[in-house]
Description:
The complex is a heterodimer of chains A (139) and B (176). By secondary structure, chain A is mainly alpha-helical. Chain A contains 5 helices and no strands. In chain A, 69% of the residues lie in helices and 0% in strands. The longest helix of chain A has 29 residues, at 101-129. Chain B is α/β, with parallel strands linked by helices and 176 residues long. Chain B is built from 7 helices and 5 strands, in the order αααβααβαββαβ.
Amino acid sequence: xxxxxxxxxxxxxxxIIGLLYPFMLLYGFHIILNGQFTPGGGFQGGCILxxxxxxxxxxxxxxxxxxxxxxxxxxxxxxxxxVIPVLLLFTGVVSRYPAYRPLYxxxxxxxxxxxxxxxxxxxxxxxxxFQGVGQTWRL
Amino acid sequence: xxxAALLVLMGVFALLAxxxxxxxxxILYLAMMSLLGAFLYLRYAAPxxxxxxxxxxSGLVTLLYLAALKRNRVYTIGVIGKDxxxxxxxxxxxxxxxxxxxxxxxxxxxxxxxxxQTVFIPESLETALANDAYDLVLQEDDEGMIAYTDDxxxxxxxxxxxxxxxGASSLRFVRH
Lengths: 139, 176
């Protein structure tokens, strides 16, 4: 059995989270993509995806993820949330082609899901690696 | 009927979480309460809310609490039996768990909201003292337990003081 480093979590937690990791990813995207037909949607699926960041921190607490870049991705998707409805909904594209309405809803769910996942992930990582002195982040 | 049962169970788990001595256990009780809340939302025909409650309450928040708990210092107590811990059996562990000294030490740490994990070690005292993983080593003898530590921290000084104040305490304190 491998020797545990003091900062690492117990082997049980490591194995269980490692086992569940792909299923959590799959389930998050399942909830996002089927959000228009079944309960769930962008926010709920995004929360499950954000759980992945926390799970990774619990097992492997190393600050090697660039939270500034994650924040940029999050802001990009926030812009997309505003831009896509303006381009597709308010110009009447969606109401003119009703056959493509499920596709539009799916895209919106996906964008909201990724936005929520990265937003909560950035919040959690900054909480986790916040050392308190001399560090500030632009909002 | 099911709703009432779920509500009562949620109350029970909330009380358990408040009165639990171990923080890790309290976190799991909170996750259970959240999961029951998700079932309750499902019974009240709010499946969207149920999924959100299950994903956030028992997924994200539970892991967040676990991550916060990593920041908390955990004291490891090693317990050695009378004959150097050669026989490590369930009956011995039950006996040691009931002993007054171990309950005193646990109560001491619980009163200060420190997390404690107890390890029963089948090793001799010398190897246990050489191991840095144990903050406090308890060895059982005829009168109770002897506590060995080289930890100079404030909490250990307080524990030593407590042992000295209680004259007839079942715990004696040795620094090495």
